[in-house]
């Protein structure tokens, strides 16, 4: 028998019954306000209860304001949704990081920073960016509301075994190129549907050298390549990050856990259904130009011409994208002006992201005509950024410094980009209307976003450092 | 859940690839706590003029397309966000089946859970159906039992997971089924390492 992959080991260790589909046990269920109300009401309608409230954690992030908490939630429907989550968690005995809790934040920032996210766990959440937690060597994926209800009731899920895909990032990451560029570069190469039906394991020299937060950025965007889950084998970097966090094991249990976690990496003779190679050593910063994350290219290049594409469906999709984005083929990316900059999200709203952006912004000002907003991924990230003086750097540069939440990434709150305006955004999706009806999104790294804010147009941040 | 076995009705062609769930149901409709009433918001932005008025240029408000039962979409349909609201909106508008060359993984699971039939067919078969669907009067039959799509003289066979097929045909409640395994779940829980509590 050949060896097993990281994915297969976690899968095997969580099968309650069945083979394919198997009933998988869920170690951690993360819950937020938008995809859970119908699940709780369905549960109650059927006279069922939450099986393991102790393995369930709830917070609010999607539709909440990022202005001062004391102002409350203006939108009555969003307020009702948040109140509903609070009531549901109270009724079922679920830990809840509410709007006034210092641990509140984007669910995919909160889980890791409080030590809930650990290697080897099966983690689910009614949110497609649950793939983020795979950075720890966990099997983590997004689910719909019916599945949320299923997990609440049974702490398990029926799953067909996905295929496995290895993506090898060869060589070291060059100076000025970030984790965001690695994952954008990969999606540009594989396409938004490239990972359908697969779980990706990110491997190779460039991956091993990444910090945990950078690994989270990579795994976060697995779903943008079509893969429900992405994972990275746990190592010393992982253990060092988890150790000492509130929910991390301690004492003898820590040692037992680390021993188990250390054996989770794919065996040397394990095989994957598909393997791709990405030339990390020659990557440059990337920027999206279209209306899905696969429509992305190196910042050193120019807006593509639909005529370059052989496939008629793709040609049509590129033409439609350029029309929505109001871009002309051949325009160098560095000449594209931006009116907005959004720094934040579960992709790039962590302390290292803020540090990276602040380094670029120190002593500089946001260009006139540019509205720039920095939204920390959690209230703990916010507190740390303030303690480190980063918040001051942002404010001195002319950024609006906000409370934690998903904010402009999906613009469910008031942080909406106006129609026809262009935003350099550190978020994960450039779908039509995602950041506001008619808004035009360019996905970039935090460093690229900060540089664009100062320049007033897209720039190659490598020219700045 | 209502059993699903045969869907028969007219088609709507949507020949675009990578249609994401943000298009199917934009975020401003996700703050509701109900499970119904999303049909009128289906493809909200695409179904409206720049001024925000309903437009009959897109099928949602096109009188000729009302009552259609089958959406014939492009590759990677339903990619992106996990919002089940997208499936509720499609179903609520009136569709009982979606045919496409491929689907987003989470979207497809969501469809199974609410009884919206998804059928995967090769690119060329989908293209053929989209061509036929240009005529709003052409009727298609999607037969889950026989695993065929029939339109005019064409018969397209499709694959479906046997477990999914049984659940859809019988309209089984997945949570009720899983709760039959409650002893196995309890047994599994007793073997979990202490640090997972």
Could you describe the 3D structure shown?
The complex is a heterodimer of chains A (about 475) and B (about 200). In chain A, the strands form five sheets. In chain A, strands 5-4-3-6-7 form a five-stranded parallel beta sheet, with helices on both faces. A five-stranded parallel beta sheet of chain A has the order 17-16-15-18-19. In chain A, helix 2 (about 35-45) crosses helix 5, helix 6 (about 180-190) packs parallel to helix 8 (about 210-220) and helix 13 (about 350-360) packs across helix 15 (about 390-395). Chain A has about 475 residues and is α/β, with parallel strands linked by helices. Chain A has helices at about 5-10, 35-45, 75-90, 105-115, 145-155, 180-190, 205-210, 210-220, 235-240, 250-260, 310-325, 345-350, 350-360, 380-385, 390-395, 445-455; strands at about 15-20, 20-25, 30, 55-60, 95, 120-125, 140, 155-160, 165-170, 200-205, 230, 275-280, 285-290, 295-300, 340-345, 370-375, 400, 420-425, 440-445. The longest helix of chain A has 17 residues, at about 75-90. Chain A contains 16 helices and 19 strands. With about 200 residues, chain B is α/β, with parallel strands linked by helices. Chain B has a seven-stranded mixed beta sheet with strand order 4-3-2-1-5-6-7. At the A-B interface, helix 2, helix 3, helix 5, helix 10 and helix 11 of A face helix 3, helix 6 and helix 7 of B.
Show unreliable segments of chain B.
none
Give the strand content of chain B.
15-25%
* End-to-end Cα distance of chain B: 34 Å
Q: CATH class of chain B, please?
A: Alpha Beta
Number of strands of chain B: 7
Which whole number gives the mean pLDDT of chain A?
Answer: 97
Number of helices of chain B: 7
Q: Give the CATH superfamily of chain B.
A: Aconitase, domain 4
> Quick one: overall form of chain B?
globular
Mean pLDDT of chain B: 96
Spell the H/E element sequence of chain B: EHEHEHEHEEEHHH
- The first-to-last residue Cα distance of chain A is 50 Å
Order of strands across the biggest sheet of chain B? 4-3-2-1-5-6-7
- The secondary structure category of chain B is alpha/beta
Structural class of chain A: alpha/beta
Helix percentage range of chain B: 25-40%
């Amino acid at each position: 028998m050949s060896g097993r992959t990281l994915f297969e080991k976690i899968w095997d260790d969580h099968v309650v019954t069945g083979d394919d589909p198997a009933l998988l046990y869920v170690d951690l269920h993360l819950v937020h306000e938008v995809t859970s109300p119908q699940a709780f009401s369905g549960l109650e309608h059927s006279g069922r209860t939450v099986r393991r409230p102790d393995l369930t954690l709830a917070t609010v992030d999607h539709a909440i304001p990022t202005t001062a908490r004391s102002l409350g939630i203006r939108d009555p429907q969003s307020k009702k949704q948040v109140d509903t989550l609070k009531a549901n968690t109270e009724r079922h005995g679920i830990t809840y990081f509410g709007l006034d809790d210092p641990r509140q934040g984007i669910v995919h920032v909160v889980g890791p920073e409080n030590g809930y996210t650990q290697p080897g766990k099966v983690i689910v959440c009614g949110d497609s960016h649950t793939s983020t937690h795979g950075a720890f060597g966990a099997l983590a994926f997004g689910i719909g509301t019916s599945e949320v209800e299923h997990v609440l009731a049974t702490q398990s899920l029926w799953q067909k075994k996905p295929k496995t895909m290895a993506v090898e990032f060869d060589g070291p990451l060059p100076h000025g190129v970030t984790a965001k560029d690695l994952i954008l570069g990969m999606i540009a190469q594989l396409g938004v549907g490239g990972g359908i039906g697969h779980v990706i394991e990110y491997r190779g020299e460039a991956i091993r050298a990444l910090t945990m937060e950078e690994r989270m950025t990579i795994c976060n965007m697995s779903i943008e390549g079509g893969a429900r889950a992405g994972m990275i084998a746990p190592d010393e970097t992982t253990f060092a990050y988890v150790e000492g966090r509130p929910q991390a094991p301690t004492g003898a249990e820590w040692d037992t856990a680390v021993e188990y976690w250390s054996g989770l990496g794919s065996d040397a003779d394990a095989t994957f259904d598909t393997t791709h190679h990405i030339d990390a050593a020659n990557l440059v910063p990337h920027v999206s130009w279209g209306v899905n994350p696969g429509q992305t290219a190196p910042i050193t290049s120019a807006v593509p011409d639909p005529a370059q594409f052989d496939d008629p469906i793709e040609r049509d999709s590129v033409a439609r994208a350029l029309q929505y984005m109001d871009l002309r083929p051949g325009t160098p990316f560095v000449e594209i002006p931006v009116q907005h900059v959004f720094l934040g999200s579960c992709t790039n709203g962590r302390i290292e992201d803020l540090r990276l952006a602040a380094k670029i912004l120190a002593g500089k000002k946001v260009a006139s005509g540019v509205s720039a907003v920095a939204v920390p991924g959690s209230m703990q990230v916010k507190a740390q950024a303030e303690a480190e003086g980063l918040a001051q750097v942002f404010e001195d540069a002319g950024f609006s410094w906000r409370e934690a939440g998903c904010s402009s990434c999906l613009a469910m709150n008031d942080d909406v980009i106006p129609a026809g305006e262009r935003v350099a955004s550190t978020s994960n999706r450039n779908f039509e209307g995602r950041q506001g009806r008619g808004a035009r999104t360019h996905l970039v790294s935090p460093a690229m976003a900060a540089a664009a804010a100062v320049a007033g147009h897209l720039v190659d941040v490598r020219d700045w450092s | 859940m209502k059993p699903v076995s045969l869907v028969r009705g007219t088609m709507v062609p949507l020949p675009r690839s990578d249609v994401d769930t943000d298009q199917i149901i934009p975020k401003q409709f996700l703050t509701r706590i109900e499970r119904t009433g999303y049909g009128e918001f289906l493809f909200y932005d695409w179904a409206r003029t720049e001024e925000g008025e309903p437009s009959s240029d897109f099928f949602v408000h096109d009188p000729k397309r009302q009552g259609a039962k089958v959406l014939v979409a492009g590759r990677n349909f339903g990619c992106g966000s996990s919002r089940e609201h997208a499936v509720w909106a499609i179903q609520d508008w009136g569709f009982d089946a979606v045919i496409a060359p491929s689907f987003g993984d989470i979207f497809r699971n969501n469809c199974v859970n609410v009884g919206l039939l998804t059928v995967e067919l090769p690119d060329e078969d989908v293209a053929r159906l989209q061509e036929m669907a240009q005529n709003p009067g052409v009727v298609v039959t999607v037969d889950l039992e026989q695993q065929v799509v029939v339109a005019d003289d064409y018969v397209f066979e499709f694959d479906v997971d046997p477990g999914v097929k049984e659940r859809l045909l019988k309209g089984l409640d997945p949570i009720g089924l899983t709760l039959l395994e409650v002893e196995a779940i309890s047994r599994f829980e007793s073997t979990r390492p202490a640090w997972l509590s």
